[in-house]
Amino acid sequence: MINVESIYWLIGLLFVAWAFLIARDANHPRRWGSSSFWGLLGLCFFYGTAVEAKTAPAWILGIAVLALVALASTGLLGDGRSNTASEEQRTASAAKFGNKLFIPALALPVVTVIVVLLAPVLKIGSKPLIDPTHTTLVALGIGAIVAALVGVAILRPQNKLSPVLEGRRIIETIGWAALLPQMLSTLGILFTQAGVGTAVGTLAKGVLPNGSLLAAVVVYCVGMFIFTVLMGNGFAAFPIMTAAIGWPVLVQGFHGQPAIVFAIGMLAGFCGTLCTPMAANFNLVPSALLEMKNKYGVITAQIATGVPLLFANIALMYFLAFRHA
Amino acid sequence: MLVLIGVLLVIVGFAIRLNPLLVVTISGIVTALLGGMSPLEILNAFGSGFSSSRSVTIFVVVLPVIGLIERFGLQEQAKTLIAKLAKLTAGRVLLGYLVIRQITAALGLTSIGGHAQTVRPLVFPMAEGAALRRYGSVPDKVREKIKGHSAAADNVGVFFGEDVFVAVGSILLITTFVDTTYGLHLEPLQLAIWAIPTAVCAFLIHGFRLLRLDRQLDKAVQEARTEDAAATPAGGQA
Predict the structure, then answer these.
(1) Could you list the residue range(s) of the whole structural domain that residue B9 is in?
(2) DSSP class of A177
(3) Does residue B10 sit in the same domain as residue B92?
(4) For residue A94, is it left (φ>0), alpha (ψ between -120 and 50) or beta?
(5) How many domains does chain A have?
(6) What ipTM does this complex have?
(7) How far is CA B19 from CA A40, B29, B212, B216, in A?
């Protein structure tokens, strides 16, 4: 069975390969710091398999993660400019290959979708070929490999490892931001374990006036928004706000229809995701990926959608979820 | 209540622009200590937190193929292609992408797009290509704005499309949480249906903004050129 761990090993392997390339690059401004960072990150992906299987202690990985943070935040990580094609070469190449260049780009989603759709029927003996609990992730991994092979077959680069070399160019422009989404997810776990949720539930109940349906809807939706902004995702905010307001006040007290209250409540949280740097994989990784000067530029573009949409959600919940006399 | 200091640290850290990795790590450690966790428990939490969240770093697997086709001129080709279509402006390119992204996400095809898969190699170059056609050259400030909106179109499309699909993480999280905690029996389909009104609002609000984006870009290009002309009175572009 191809499980999701094999995809994580593929990621680990890429990081280690990039660390190796950087170590061999004598012109790199932060050669050893960068090489250690990416290499250690790769090893963490391998070791993570054992932690998930509970066959190795997690604290060793914890120390490694703190070491990664130390490397990244003390300026030991840098962006070496790998050898790549110049703008003139790329323009000439674009003229030569034309729209064939889109084939690998489209092969990626097409193969991914085909694998997702075929996954339920692909079997070896009676066992599924693809891990049914992580179909999409495995399919994306397979899609990425197939697309890279298709790309090499069509474009025929002189060096067959060109995809790995060019991948290094992109990961180095992303830099430490690549690790941030995982760190934020860890922060969410620590917040929950330390009881941040309970503390906030108490606060939220304190500000709620008695007997007003509109006020309760506003506190639930705005609370989802604020908590998502602070924690970086609506998933962490949902249990907190639902336990504080959504269930006891809106559903039990005002007899709201649970499906509507919860669905719209979660989406109010998503409005917060548009407005927060804590949602690094949606808001900070892309600005690194697009090489933006202002790393908060994506959020700036989104706030004017996120805030009005929060008001829309409040109105929708108020008018749809409750039978108004 | 003391544990809320950790939340405060995050806000302050981001506000004074410390390295976010450092902010998050320190806030996590402080919160955990205030919550009474031992150093070993904290290290364990960092370790298991990392290993259980490896899926968010999945974007790395697509970097090799994207890097390869970029080297061979994908972005340039995307720009050339768009430049041929006279009626396409940056705003309309992004509106088109918003439609596609939201519909495919609502059908469960979230991995079809994404910042690494489509925004960097295709969407941004196309939007930039449309702007190049309209303005001749694109000032850096305007390019930044187009970049921000390219990523934003992807986020808005996927966030407010995916919840219309039943088997998505957030819907399953809601049903699992409320069913086990409150003994309800919510069908994922009911939740997905009630995500549709918000999806429509999201499309109307963001779509409207993208239609207005072109006028904002026109203005920004004008401003950048006047500034340039003021800075270098002798030279100047046509």
Answers:
(1) 4-43
(2) G
(3) no
(4) alpha
(5) 2
(6) 0.84
(7) 20, 16, 35, 32
Among partner residues A186, A235, A320, which is closest to B49 by beta-carbon distance? A186
**Nearest CB to A289 within list B25, B116, B171:** B116
pLDDT tens string A232-270: 878 778 888 888 889 888 999 899 999 999 999 999 999
Residue among A72, A112, A274 whose CB faces B21 most closely: A72
A190, A270, A303, A313: best to mutate for the B interface, most B CBs within 10 A: A190
The whole domain housing A171 covers 1-178
Question: Looking at the domain assignment, is residue B112 inside a domain?
Answer: yes
**B114 interfaces chain A, CB cutoff of 8 Å:** no
pTM of structure: 0.81
Chain B CB contacts of A47 below 8 Å: 51
C-alpha to C-alpha distances, A94 to A91, A170, B5, B124, B182, nearest whole angstrom? 5, 19, 54, 17, 58
Q: What is the DSSP string of A197-244?
A: HHHHHHHHHHHPPTT-HHHHHHHHHHHHHHHHHHHSSHHHHHHHHIII
Residues A155, A159, A163: CA angle, nearest 5 degrees: 65
